Amino acid sequence: MEIKLPNLGEGADSGVVVSILVKEGDNITTGQSLIEIETGKAIASIPAEKSGKVEKILVKVGDKISVGNKIMILEMPGEPQTASAQKHTIQQLAPTPQPTTSKKIEIQESDEYETADEQGLSSYTPAAAPSIRRIARELGIDLRQVKGTGPGGRIQISDLRAYISNLQRLAKQAVKKPSEVTVVQPVSIDFAQWGPVTKRPMSQLRLTIAKRMLESVNTIPQVTQFDEVDITALDGLRKKFAPQYEEKGARLTFTVFVLKALISALQKHPIFNSSLDEATNEIVLKNYYHIGIAVDTEGGLLVPVVRNVDHKSMLELSIDLATIARKARDRKLTLDDIRGGTITVSNQGGIGGGHFTPIINKPEAAILGVGKSQLKPVVVNGKIEPRIILPLAVSYDHRLIDGGEAARFITDLCKAFSEITENQIKLS
Description:
- The protein contains eleven helices and 19 strands.
- By secondary structure, the protein is an alpha+beta fold.
- It has three domains: 1-82, CATH 2.40.50.100; 92-167, E3-binding domain (Dihydrolipoamide Transferase), CATH 4.10.320.10; 222-425, Chloramphenicol Acetyltransferase, CATH 3.30.559.10.
- The two termini are 58 Å apart.
């Protein structure tokens, strides 16, 4: 049995082998970890799908592998045929000329091959050797659709090969000709002709981020709604209770307040806590609140997830935020740490800048951007007063959300900040 790298989810389709946890000759059990790979965002362990004996390891530490690449070969108990032998049997179906001393079989791509629609399906299975039936079953081929050329219409291996060749021809016809597709090839520019340059390769994390961002903007019609909220009173409460949190080993950052206000707005506007299932054209409304937090690291942006935010206190959220930020910066995140987010928060307040247009973390429907708060002159009850103003930006999927709903959402979000009470913040 060939063990291949499975689908890792969350847009991760490749990684670098960081450790191999078994060796050739080891007996392994179902679910046992075989290797660990770094996907750019997290360290993932790859488990065994079945029990068996490690016959051959096909990767080494440092190798970059993609989904579908072979990792190792297992010797299965009671298997009459090894994986390599099975592969050889299937390879016999390749529609290429086979060197032989007997009659040469030539397969031509013509329109004369009789398909199932032309013959009609019989109610019985045509004659074929058991080996032919087994191969057809493994490949999902209905032998009633194959024209047999043997005695009495018996199906031979050459008939299967001809049938597959015809399917390939039909597939080619269904694809646009290269002349009909405009392909922009990347061009390498010699920037050194204008002055000194320094080159460095993109890291695996940077490549992953680039791919995800490009996919998001190319497949989602994104619109950004802006607003500002007065957090003067809330900032006073944060400073008042921050020492209590420090005594508990936590920091009362403003991101905690953002999470509390966001939950209130999401509960009123559940479409912002949804995803579009593009395969079925269904809107998936999620009845849980797992908030992704964009963390700025030396290697690039990572988005670990804080789970069940609606059920946690301000202290619990403070501890969770510190924990995931530390794991992100130490590159200790696992795949479970970054999966299952329902909406993302990107808070640049600690760095600087005001409004910006955050890119949606697909397959989520929206992302909240938070800028740096500033002291501004604001008219309050007819008088100009200094107030602390926080810039907000919500990017949303316009396939699911219209502008009116986005305006109502951000309005309720701003209102939710003013509704956070002292009792929610202070520790008992």
